[in-house]
Amino acid sequence: MEGAGVRLKRVFGYNEVPLLDPFLLLDDFHSANPDDYIAGFPWHPHRGIETVTYMLHGKVKHEDSIGNRGVIQNGDVQWMTAGSGIIHSEMPQQENGLLWGFQLWVNLPASNKMMTPRYQEIEKNQIPEILLENDVRIRIISGEFNGTTGPVTDIVVDPIYLDVSIPPNSPFKHKVKSGYTAFVYVIEGGGFFDVEKSQFVGSEHLVIFTDGDEIAIQTDKEPVHFLLISGKPIGEPIAWYGPIVMNTEEELKTAFREYQNGSFLKYQGGSER
Ligand code: FE
Question: Ligand 1 centroid vs 44 CA: distance in angstroms?
Answer without folding.
Answer: 6
